[in-house]
Amino acid sequence: MTRPPTSRDLARLAGVSQATVSRVLTNNPKVNPETRARVLQVLKDANYTPNALARAMKTGRTDTIGVFMTRVTSPFHAELLDEIGRVLSSMGLHMILWNIEHDPEETVAAVLQQRLVDGFVLTSATYDSKLHTMALASGTPTVLLHRGIDGLDCDQVVGDNWQGAYDAGRYLVDAGHTDIGLVTLRATGNTSRDRDAGFRAALADAGVKLKPSNVITVGVPHADGHAAAEKLLSRKKPPTAIYTITDLLAFGILDGARAIGAHVPDDVWVIGFDNTDMAAWESFDLTSVEQPVHAIVETGIDLLRDRIADPDRPTQIVTLPCPLAIRGSTANRPLSAAKD
Amino acid sequence: MTRPPTSRDLARLAGVSQATVSRVLTNNPKVNPETRARVLQVLKDANYTPNALARAMKTGRTDTIGVFMTRVTSPFHAELLDEIGRVLSSMGLHMILWNIEHDPEETVAAVLQQRLVDGFVLTSATYDSKLHTMALASGTPTVLLHRGIDGLDCDQVVGDNWQGAYDAGRYLVDAGHTDIGLVTLRATGNTSRDRDAGFRAALADAGVKLKPSNVITVGVPHADGHAAAEKLLSRKKPPTAIYTITDLLAFGILDGARAIGAHVPDDVWVIGFDNTDMAAWESFDLTSVEQPVHAIVETGIDLLRDRIADPDRPTQIVTLPCPLAIRGSTANRPLSAAKD
DNA sequence: GCGAGGGATGAATACGTATACACTTCCAGA
DNA sequence: TCTGGAAGTGTATACGTATTCATCCCTCGC
């Protein structure tokens, strides 16, 4: 037959009622072992799979999680997405992926209310977006991963960006750097904000002044890091170290340095943020503050499942440490050399 | 009310039947303009969104496409995924993403029959996988993007990998190279096979011998390219050019070269395949055979929609050209130098 | 003035499953 | 012997929407 067989078709074949077939499918204990075996055999012979839509409509559960993300081509986001996919599938959950860069706001708004997922994962919460508000208002369980919103009554799992940035700053200061560059982003979310603020705090605490001319605010692409490095390093007296708030920008900075003949780390140290896989590549060999992607995702999905199971539980905000991964872009060297 | 309002609730509010509300929602012309306006107002006031599951169950269409993919963290795959997401969302379609690396075979098999998507996009078809066979057997419209299966009666859109590889080989030969390295993958799909075979054919046609010791078969990660380059370039008489079948491996090769002090392109030329965004980065500046990602995806999704609309139309196989993007990793230089 | 026909709407049903409820059988306990 | 209840199964219904069919009213043409 061209139409896929339904549980009713198979019930007839097995000589039982549709209800019994359904009970077998849901592992309902109230069914005679012999009957169960017979039905299972029929199901198997017919290569039957329950219609997920009908099941979802009846139970109200779709076993699907909606993920909102941006810039999938960015190395860190790709790793984050990969990890989310891994964890969800290990739990038997499907993933619907929405790229909020591509989807117009009204589309997203409609999607939120369609009840076609059991929960939402937001990875790119920003202060100037209403997405998280709308998601919460929809009544669908929601968790914020990677980026959080302070004070929002919503489960959140984020890295301790401020501390990670502080440690990076402290590390540079301790190595003797006093003329330090900061390539930063306009703070649209807590990540960029804290990665900026924590770093500044470390320098301030150490009494190292951050020259305004050493701070460059850019956009997200690699090319912007490239341009910033050229700008900073083509000065008469360029900074001896540059910290930036994403690995992607750091790669651009390394490239920019290469382009104008500045050597890393001899002429300038470079530190990124995210510790993506690529940071370990020979081309970059980048010191970077690590995002505990695995733990963030694992913890976040757990929180989401807990909330799906019990929507009224108190919200939980988890902050995970971001340790510094040291590599060749900041090879330690004598203090005097750094100051030179 | 805590439960989302249904069309029946709103029908009562508007003083019409549920059927009329439904007619308004589906833009059925057989409804009085005044009634339509009144209903629309009520819908808007209630901020109503139709239940996607119920609608899908009734119409048999979910407006969702299932995408099967691997290695999202690989630059090319990330670009492919991004493009697929862009195109689907521009058509108002949702995307369920399955990573066939993570999902066990039986999970995938079950998914294929659940009718929860209108169509499948397979981007990683391999000869030793049954995925494409199972997808076709499920009766759900399916298209193969990027990787194809020769002779399979299924819509396919692929790059002309063979020609692209041939052109790359020809380009090296024309530049005077005679001692050429090939870093290749075990041919699990048509891409790796053709990117290998086309290159070999170009050399053979030109009478340039490919030394067996110059051919290294590796795995997909960056590190494997790195290792291969070290192996090839640490010889007494290393090849003067290396071609490989993915950009990711090429990046590894560039890194490996850097690691042992070989200079690109003075000591060795390097050519990759995919022409990812990263190939243009200063660190790599990689000559690469371009995959027309945009055209592949756009064409592929069009084919898929056509097939959804008419399942019985003849299958179509589209092959798009893969031009060579030349960059600094193969800067042209005098022939004599190349031979030296 | 009357029937035909079209426009607008409501009532009823179906999609495929899960589940509350009713029913039968059979056995234990009085 | 009778009864209560458990085990197993079937019947009926609901999920929320789209759609067929029937109904009603109004207009138009004769």
TrEMBL record, chains A, B:
InterPro entries: HTH_LacI, LacI/GalR-like_sensor, Lambda_DNA-bd_dom_sf, Peripla_BP_I. Residues 5-59 form the HTH lacI-type domain. SUPFAM superfamilies: lambda repressor-like DNA-binding domains, Periplasmic binding protein-like I. Keywords: DNA-binding, Transcription, Transcription regulation. GO terms for molecular function: DNA-binding transcription factor activity; transcription cis-regulatory region binding. It comes from Kribbella sindirgiensis. It comes from the Bacteria. Pfam families: LacI, Peripla_BP_3. This is LacI family transcriptional regulator.
